[in-house]
Amino acid sequence: MGEEVKTTDFEKVIEEFERITKNAENVQKEILRKILEENASTEYLQKLGLNGRTDPESFKACVPLVLYNDLEPYIERMIDGDFSPILTGKPITIMSASSGTSQGKQKYIPWNDEVFETSVDIYQTSFAYRNREFPIQDGKALNFIYSSNFTQRKGGVIYGSATGHLFKSPGFKPLLQALKSPSCSPDGVIFSPDFHQSLYCHLLCGLLFREEIHSIASTFGHSIVFAFRSFEQDWEELVNDIKEGVLSSRITVPSIRDAMSKLLKPNPELADLIHKKCTGLSNWYGLLPELFPNVKYIQGIMTGSMETYLNKLRHYAGEVPVLTSEYGASEGWIGSNVNPKVAPEFATYAVLPQIAYFEFIPIAQLDGTQVELDPVGLTDVKIGEEYEIVITNAAGLYRYRLGDVVKVMGFHNSTPEIKFIRRGGLLLTINIDKVTETDLQLSVETASKFLDEEKIELIDYTSYIDLSKEPGHYVIFWEIRGEASDGVLAECCNCLDKTFIDRGYVISRNTKAIDDLELRIVGKGTFQKLLENHIQRGASVSQFKTPRYVGPTNTKVLQILSENVVKSYVSTAYN
Ligand code: AMP
C-alpha cells in the first residue's frame, strides 16, 4: 500500500483529482457499486433485502438512514468477537473509538485497510494542492502526532483511535515520506504511553532538526497551540538538554529515552542560539519562524471549533501562513482543502467522490415538520444551502448520519466545496431558544475582545445549561491568562448574554423564561485537566477537541469544571 505512493508526482495527483471530480456522479455510482458488491453477503444488507442490487435507487429504497444508536447492537457483537460478516464482508479486527467529547460517551467505529487507503487519497490530494501554492523541498516536518493506547479485549478486536490506527499502519511512514513530510521525531516518541513526555520530545526533536523543518503540523490545530504553550513553560529545560546532551529526568519511559539518546549530543552552540532567540522575543510573537527558520507553513484542521485557537497560532507563527488541511471523522474522510491560500475562516473542503458514497440531508428537512428525510446526491446539492452529511463507506457504514452540518459554497468541477458549519444537534436550549456551536463561538469571540484590549488571553471555553433552579440559565466557563479586573469580566459576561441573537433566546430572556447568564472563570490548567481526563478514558490526544457544551451526563467533566471555578459573574444585560 505505502510503496505505491513512494514516487508521488503531485501534478499527476492534481490531474487525477480533476478527472475524478469532472466525473463525480459516475465515480459515486461506481464506489457505491463496489461497496455493495464487496459487502453483499453481510447480515445487515441481506436483511434489508437488497439482493445483490448495487444501484443508488435500490440502495435508497431498501437501506434506511441510521444513527450510531441503530448500529450499536451490531457493533456490540463485533466488539464481543463475532467475526461473521455482520457489517462488512471481511471481518473487522480493529475498532476506532471516536472522541465523543460532549456527552462523554464514545462511539466505536470499524476500521480496516480501506480506511487507510482513503487516508492516502485525502492526504495526497491536500498535499498536492498545498504544494502547488507553498512548495517545499525535501526536509522534515514537526508533526505533533500521538498514538493512542491500543487495547485488546476478549474477542480479540484491537481498540484505539482512528488516528492511532492510521499512524501505526505500515504505509503511514512511507506516505509522509512521499509527501516530503517525514516526522522529525522517532517512533519511540510518537508511540509512547505518556503524552506529556511525547510532547516534550517532539519539541526537542524539532529544535535538534530546526534548520530542516519546513512544516509544522498536527491533526487538529489545538495540538500545535498546546505544544507551544508548553514550550513557553519548558523552553529552558529543553535548551539545557541540548546544551548537556542529556535528556531531562522528567522523561522516564525507557522507549522514549532510548529513541532520544540516539539523537541527543551536547551542542552548547545550538543551545545558546535558541536561548538568545527565546529571550529576544516579545511575548513569543513570531516564535515559530525564529525557532524554525525554514518553516513554510503551519497546517492541520483549523476550522470549526479549532478557529478558537487561530489567534494564538498566528501569534506564534508571525508571518508564516496557517493553513487548514482536511475534513473528516473517525467514521470516514470527507474532503480536502484544494484552495490552501484561503484563510481558515473562509476555507472550504472539496469532497473526494472516490472515497465514499455521500448523501446530503437538506437542513430545512431537519428543522421542518417533514417526517421522511430525503437526502440528495453529491452532485445535486445547491450552492448556499446547508446539509447534514450521510456516509456510506467500505468500513461498514451504510447511510450513516454523521451529524455534522455543512454549507455548499461552490463546486470544484462537479464535486461540492463545503464549509464546515457545526456539529450536529442543538447545543444550548432551555425554552424556545436554539443556540448552536457557531452562535456560541461568535458570542465568545465578541465578548473576548474586552480581554484583548487588556492583553489578557482567553485560553479555552465551554458551556453548560444550569437547570438546578427555575428558570434555567446558560453557564459559560472561561479559562483566561492574565489578571482581569471584575469590571472587565462583568462586561464580558453581559456581552456574552447580549450577543446570543437567536430570536428564541432573546424572547426568553426578555420574558424571564431564561434566567441571567453566568460567566464562571476557572483556574489555570483546568482545560488541560479536561484533556488529561480525555486521555485517561483511552481517547487520543491527536483527536482532542474541547467540548463546547457539557451535557448533564458528562459528570466527570462537570466535576472538573465546577471544582476549579475561581470567580463567577451574573449578567445584568437584561435587567
Ligand atoms: P472524531 O470524533 O475525532 O472522529 O472527530 C470528528 C469530528 O471533528 C467531525 O465530525 C467534525 O465535527 C470535526 N471535524 C473534523 N474535521 C473538521 C474540519 N476540517 N473542520 C471542522 N470540524 C472538523
TrEMBL record:
<protein>
    <submittedName>
        <fullName>Jasmonoyl--L-amino acid synthetase jar6</fullName>
    </submittedName>
</protein>
<dbReference type="Pfam" id="PF23571">
    <property type="entry name" value="GH3_M"/>
</dbReference>
<feature type="domain" description="GH3 C-terminal">
    <location>
        <begin position="439"/>
        <end position="550"/>
    </location>
</feature>
<dbReference type="InterPro" id="IPR055378">
    <property type="entry name" value="GH3_C"/>
</dbReference>
<dbReference type="Pfam" id="PF23572">
    <property type="entry name" value="GH3_C"/>
</dbReference>
<feature type="domain" description="GH3 middle">
    <location>
        <begin position="349"/>
        <end position="423"/>
    </location>
</feature>
<dbReference type="InterPro" id="IPR004993">
    <property type="entry name" value="GH3"/>
</dbReference>
<dbReference type="GO" id="GO:0005737">
    <property type="term" value="C:cytoplasm"/>
</dbReference>
<comment type="similarity">
    <text>Belongs to the IAA-amido conjugating enzyme family.</text>
</comment>
<dbReference type="GO" id="GO:0016881">
    <property type="term" value="F:acid-amino acid ligase activity"/>
</dbReference>
<keyword id="KW-0436">Ligase</keyword>
<dbReference type="Pfam" id="PF03321">
    <property type="entry name" value="GH3"/>
</dbReference>
<dbReference type="InterPro" id="IPR055377">
    <property type="entry name" value="GH3_M"/>
</dbReference>
